[in-house]
Amino acid sequence: MVVRIGDGAGNGLLGTAVSDRLVGNGGNDTLTGLGGNDTLLGGTGNDRLFGGGGNDILKGGAGNDTINGGGDGGSFPNIDQLFGGAGADRFIFGLGGGRDDIMDFQDNVDTIYISKTYFATKAELMQNVSSSGGDCAIDLSGNGDDSPRIVIYNIDKSQLANDIVLF
């Protein structure tokens, strides 16, 4: 495991092919995990977190953070836990597979960005959203497969529509 800790001044920290723990502390940090099962902690500031391959945990912390589904702009290939923290956070899902769990989504504060590669319209996307037990799941495959899938905890489907942007 590689541990890298920023100095609080706004850092660019790059992980390795093994499991890393990257801690940005204060400032507007960019943390990139690469391979392995990484833990990225942005801290305060407007951070950008990119997980890469592996089962990652991404926590933006306080600030308006951008949490990307992988270093290549795609979603994680495995099950990952995403925490935006306080502030207006952006969760970005490009091409990729696997399942991503958004653990602390805030309705009318945070935004989920999903590639138009999956769905051409928001109406089509919303047909592939299901609610159960106070949580939502977005089936990005559009055919009932478990992957790729986004699970958003503690939010109802009716709340989610205004928080999604297709790009």
UniProtKB/TrEMBL annotation:
Signal peptide: none
A Gene Ontology molecular function term of the record: calcium ion binding
Superkingdom of origin organism: Bacteria
Pfam families: HemolysinCabind
Entry GO CC: extracellular region
Keyword entries, A-Z: Secreted
Subcellular location, record wording: Secreted
Protein name: Calcium-binding protein
